[in-house]
Amino acid sequence: MSEEVPSIIANAEDHMQKAITHLEVELVKIRAGKANPQMLDGLSVDYYGSPMPINQVANISVLDARTLSIQPWEKNMLQPIERSIIAANIGINPQNDGTIIRLFLPPLTEERRKELVKKCHNEGEHSRVAIRNIRRDAIEHIKKLQKDGLSEDAAKESEDDVQKLTDKFTSIVEKHLQSKEKEIMSV
Question: Of 54, 74, 104, which marks where a domain is finished?
Answer without folding.
Answer: 104
